[in-house]
Amino acid sequence: MSTQIRWLGHAAMSLQTAGFEILIDPFFTGNPKAAIATDDARADFILISHGHGDHVGDSVAIAKRTGATIIANYEIACWLEGQGVKRVHGQQHGGGFNHPFGRVKLTLAFHGSALPDGSNGGNPCGFLIYTKDGKKIYHAADTGLFGDMRLIGEEGIDLAVLPIGDNYTMGPDDALRAVKMIEPKKVIPIHYDTFPIIAQDAQAWAARVRAETKTEAIVLQPGESTPL
Ligand code: NI
Ligand code: MN
């Protein structure tokens, strides 16, 4: 089956690829836009971009129930072991690893990463995911705009997942500049409308992407999915 990606609200996504279910930043409890309940989440692997509560989310509970392996930076991986998560895999920026579902490389992200209990969550990251069916996904997670997105674009990105909410991350103007640097085939906006402070008009942003770039902008509702 081809790779599918589903938006679960805020920064939470699920990726179905090579017969595996991969959850990214599974924040459901306390997320007014959560598409699923924590108890209904399925996962073989969980990717966590940084230590903030809206990204670590329900990952500990889901990993304990499903036995999923959590992939995160080394500091968060160690913290998760302390929380009783059995299977963790720590990586660090620029480093890639061939997981059973595909390759994951951590990218830069300009943001914070303190964990919910105040522990040091290392540095925040985005993800480059290389699927076994040859797709390249760049999930930027929480970040401001940075010029090295051009380097990420050099990889030939099929899908970019970019925050547009502003205030804590890139807003619509900088996310449009990011699309112009990365030049992905498709882009999905995330990290908006969850709370009033990050309310955005995603359709208006998608119209600007279509008018000013060759990238296909896909606006999903929480719970909707799209094939790559
Ligand atoms: Ni954050
Ligand atoms: Mn966030």
Structure description:
It is a single chain. This protein is α/β, with parallel strands linked by helices and 228 residues long. It has one domain: Metallo-beta-lactamase, Chain A (4-Layer Sandwich), CATH 3.60.15. The chain has six helices and 14 strands. Strands 6-5-4-3-2-1-14 form a seven-stranded mixed β-sheet, with helices on one face. The longest helix is centred in the last third of the chain and has 11 residues, at 172-182. It binds nickel (II) ion and manganese (II) ion. Nickel (II) ion is lined by residues 50, 52, 55, 111, 142, 168.
The SSE order reads EEEEHHEHEEEEEHEHEHEE
Mean of residue pLDDT values: 97
CATH class descriptor: Alpha Beta
H/I helix tally? 6
The ligands found in this model are: nickel (II) ion, manganese (II) ion
* C-alpha geometry: globular
- Gyration radius, to the nearest Å? 16 Å
Helix content: 10-25%
Number of strands: 14
Could you say what the CATH topology is called? Metallo-beta-lactamase, Chain A
The CATH superfamily label reads Ribonuclease Z/Hydroxyacylglutathione hydrolase-like
CATH architecture title: 4-Layer Sandwich
Largest sheet: 7 strands, mixed
Class from secondary-structure proportions? alpha/beta
Q: How large is the share of residues in beta strands?
A: 25-35%
- Uncertain runs are none
Number of domains: 1
How far the N terminus sits from the C terminus, by CA atoms, comes to 11 Å
| Sequence of strands across the biggest β-sheet | 6-5-4-3-2-1-14
